[in-house]
Each structure stands twice: as C-alpha cells, then as structure tokens.
Amino acid sequence: MAAGFEAIGNGELLAWLRDVAQLCMPDNVYLCDGSPEEYAYMCDQLVRQGTFTRLNETLRPDCFLARSHPSDVARVEDRTYICTGDQAEAGPTNNWAPAEEMKLKMACMFKDCMAGRTMYIIPFSMGPVGSPFSMIGVEVTDSPYVVVNMTIMTRVGTKVLEALGADGKFVPCLHSVGAPLAPGQEDVTWPCERDPANKYIVHFPEDPSIWSYGSGYGGNALLGKKCLALRIASAVARKEGWLAEHMLILALTSPEGKKHYVAGAFPSACGKTNLAMMQPTLPGWKVTCLGDDIAWMRIGADGRLYAMNPETGFFGVAPGTSYQSNPNAMDTFTRNSIFTNVALTDHGDVWWEEMGVPAPAHAIDWEGNDWSPDADRKAAHPNSRFTAPASQCPVIDPDWQNPAGVPISAFLFGGRRASTIPLVNEAFDWEHGVFMGSAAGSETTAANLSKTGVLRHDPFAMLPFCGYNMGDYFTHWLSMADRTDAAKLPRIFFVNWFRKGDDGHWLWPGYGENSRVLKWIFERVEGGGEAVETPIGYLPAPDALDLSGLDLPSEDLSALLAVDIEGWKGEAEGLGTYYDGFGDRLPGALRKQLAALKERLSRG
Ligand code: OXD
Ligand code: MN
Questions:
Q1: At residue 4, does pLDDT exceed 70?
Q2: Which of 6, 207, 222, 471 has the most CB within a 10 Å radius?
Q3: How far apart are CA 282 and CA 264, in angstroms?
Q4: Ligand nearest to the CA of 448
Q5: Cα–Cα distance between 574 and 569 in angstroms, integer?
C-alpha cells in the first residue's frame, strides 16, 4: 500500500494536495491504491474503531453495518450550494453564495480540520478508466468510511492516477467530517459536525471543484456521486452538448429477443433501484440493469442518444427492499456490501421495515438501542442504505461498462403522486416531452433531511442535482433536438406508480407488474401499442395494456388511465406560477407548451 505523495506524477494534483495538507493539517496522509487488500484492511480498521460491525460471516460474508450519528442521516439540500461569480448562473432553484466569498469561508472551516486524523487521497474515475467520456476526480477525505464506500461506488486507485498522467485534468473534491481531534482526545464511532447549520456541500462549477464539510453520509460525502457525476457533470455537459441525468438505465428484452434500452428519471427514494433491476411478471419479458441512479448521455455517430452509467455500485434505500419488491437487489447485497443505519439482528444479520421477513423478536436499532416489534419507533432509519457492487447484480447487463454506452429508445419521467397523474402518458413529441419533464413533481422522501410527504416541483428529478440555472437546463434539453434528427431521440413517457384511491389504497400493484407498462412502451417504440390522444398526451387505449393474470378492479384501472381535467387545470396553474420564478431564463417553447395544454384542457 502506498503512503504519501511519491506515486503522484501529476504536477497540478501534487500542488493541490500540498496546499490541502497544509490547510487541513492531518496527522497522516494515505494514498489509496484501490486494491482488494486495501479495502479489506480499511474495513478491519473500521471494525477496530467501532464504526463497523462485521455481520455474520455465514449469513452475509464480508458485509458490515455502520451506524451514523442521528444528526447525519441524509443529504442536506438546504446546506448544498452552487457557487458562481454571478447568481443568475446558479439560478432560482439552487442555494448560492459568491464563489470567492464562499472559498474564503470554506478555507477558514477547513483550517486544521483533519488534526488527529489521516487524510486519505482517493483518485477515482466516473466511467470506465481511460475512456474519453469519463471524468476523473480526486477526493481528499478524513473519513475511512468514505474510502470504502467510494471503492464500491467508483473505480478507484493507481489505475486512475495512471490514466490521469502527468498533465491530465481532474476535479478536486475536498471532504472533511469536520471533527478534528485534540491530542489525546478519544474518537467517536461516527465523527461529524453535529450542528446541521454548519454543514456545507459546496460546488464551484466554474473551476470545477467541490468542497464538502461536516457530513459523512451518502451524497454529502461520497463526492463522485451527486456532487461530481450530477451537479458538476451537468454544468460540464451543458457546455459540451451532452446530458448528465438522475436516471436509471435498463434494458428490456421481449419474448422474441428484441431489446430496447430505457432511461428513467425519478426523484430520490421513488423506486429507481426497484425498476432498474425488476423481475417482470409478464412471461417471457426480461429486464437487465445498467444503472440505478445516474446516466451520462451523448449523441452517437448514428444520431441516437447513448447512455452510460458512470458508477460501479448501488447506494440504495434499504427499507421496503424485499424479495417481493426487488429480489435482484436482495441477491446483490448477499456479500461484499455495507449497510448503514439498518437494524442488527441477534444472528448478526440485517433487518429493516418491509424486508418481507417477520420482524425479529429482538434487534439493535439504527441508533444502537434494544428494539422489539412492540417499540413505537422504526428499527431502521427510513433513509438507511446498502452499498453494493453492481457487478454482483444477478441481472447486470453485459454492456453496463461499455464506454460507448447503449442507445436509448425511451425516457421515463415520474414522481410520487397520489392523485391526478395517470399511470402512463406518452408525449406528443420531443418538445412536449421536455415540457412534461419540466413539469414533474413529487412528494418529498427521507433521502433529504427535511419534511417528508410534501409535494414539490422536481423537474426531471434534478431539483437537488442541477449544477446551473434550471431555466438554462430546460433550454439545453430542448436543444438536443437541434443536435440530431429529432426522430432519433428517445420517445418520452410520464409514469406514476404511486396513485391512490379516494380511500387511500394503492391503485397499481407496482414492482414487477410495472413490466405491463414497460411492454406498452416497448410496443409504442416499435410502432405498435394502441393509444388514444388526450389533452395531456397519448394514453393506452382500452385493452392496450397487457393485464393478463392481474386481478385489477376495473374501477381502479379506469382511475389510473383517466384524464382528471380539473386536477390538470390545477397542475397547469401551479406550473405557470413555478415557471414565473425562472424569469427570462425560461425558454419560450415551454410557455407555449403550457398555453397549448391549457387550451386543450379547456376543450375537455
Ligand atoms: C440517492 C439520492 O442517494 O437520490 O441516490 O438521494
Ligand atoms: Mn439518486
């Protein structure tokens, strides 16, 4: 294992690392090589420190449980900033501060912040190492928990430094848990800044660079994921003419062996991982998985849009994951995985709510306390997670690491909506589809540290992840139609698995049954699949959805496929007000789309 800076041949990187070490004043410096031995060593060290508990080797080999501090359990959107010279570049949906001012503030925060700790240097590649479409980052962190999670989620180590070479470009990503140790001070198992107001997740897209302070959790701390592969990459993609999106990528194969690739944007904790690796209930249909969270897409030589997943792991929400909802995820994290904030059973295994197995009579809950089913609190935190290697997914697609990506035939947009939005709705054309994406909304979930269940606009599921002005982002999406023959772009569909009846029951069974909707989408892409034209788009014609073998009350089906004119008029009003917030950055085409929707609705 390498130590110090000796192995680094990139002058710019070396200079940055020297500056960072001088600022943060760690006791030790360690350069990660990305080897399996290093991963094992670090996990053992985390066990010795009490951060990790090794799970039962027979039940769950090479798996670990971590419990975070209760103040550090989710992304912190209100502490997340896009810092530019001019506020208009960050736009109305992002927190902003002047870049130079924020850098000074961050420098004060980071001063001596690694005292008593080791500074780990993690060279990582989002996308296959050496591919011209990949981006290299170097995360400097004082958290060994971050090191092992990054090793699963990205490509890490010496091979990345080799690809970087002497003068290659990288995104500097500086992270600290914000908990320096005084000489002799005993460490805690989850060091972090306890006061949420002192956490800062800051992006400087004009550099580009990332500074993250105070949190050790998920998207706040694993800087390759939300920070680099979405916020920074989206800003880079806009300049370079491609797309960096909060999307799953799946392949759908028909019983005849025909394959189409689909990418889907859904807000956090709205079932992306379940859909990405679903087991279709329709006989003969097959889903294979290429990614569950992020898609980078470019127009290929044939004019089609090609998507690749820049990650190598899944950082999925545990509660609700079961052999019924997602058998392939369950089989993915049987080994070599990390669980955070789930419950620990007396057998040394993990448990969470809706895992599909009876609650244990006794467990240790996510806060480390005794728990039994009669406790009036959850055993696992609602945003507890598994970190698992994508390569272990039983339905991983053979092309999941293809640097050229796969051609996308259809986009799905969606959210968690109890009313109004039908089960599936196809856009009239690209511009209308972009309008639909811009209009998306969803009820908030525990993936962010704030109130859950509140309906908010979440365009393209990118509200927390767009690294520039969202109005310009809409323009960028529209411009894809000028970059290729629009007929070659993916068809766009809006889906909603989360409709409820007036009495609160779920109207649609979801999970593997979503294959029935995917089949209709597949047929539409192939030029078939009967549809009716409605004011909001094309909906499946009566009998067009394959419901064979499904016991779905006819009134539920009618509600799922109805156009709720009054509800949509309300949607359109709300959207108009939302659009006003973008001022002159809102593309005129979207205002026209909204006016056309209102006009169609008025005709009923
Ligand atoms: C995630 C999220 O972790 O969207 O993927 O919060
Ligand atoms: Mn996500």
A1: no
A2: 222
A3: 20
A4: 1
A5: 9
User: Is residue 270 among the annotated active site residues?
Assistant: yes
Helix (H, G, I), strand (E, B) or coil at 563: coil
Local structure of residue 500 (DSSP, 8 states): B
Measured from the alpha carbon of residue 221, the closest ligand is 1
pLDDT tens-place string over residues 32-58: 999 999 999 999 999 999 999 999 999
The torsion angle over the Cα atoms of residues 175, 180, 186 and 192, rounded to 10 degrees, is: -50
- Pairing state between β 259-265 and 406-414: parallel
Q: pLDDT tens for residues 370-398? A: 999 999 999 999 999 999 999 999 999 99
pLDDT band at 604 (very low <50, low <70, confident <90, very high): confident
Q: What's the CA gap between 91 and 462, in Å, rounded?
A: 13
32, 113, 270, 289: the active-site residue = 270
Q: What is the share, in percent, of the chain residues with pLDDT greater than 90?
A: 96
Residue 92: strand, helix, or coil: coil
What letter would DSSP give residue 222?
A: -
In terms of phi and psi (left: phi > 0; alpha: psi -120 to 50; beta: otherwise), the region of 431 is alpha
What is the token pair recorded at 202? 């800051």
- Distance from C-alpha of 160 to C-alpha of 164, rounded to nearest angstrom: 6
> Which position has the token pair 């130590």?
3
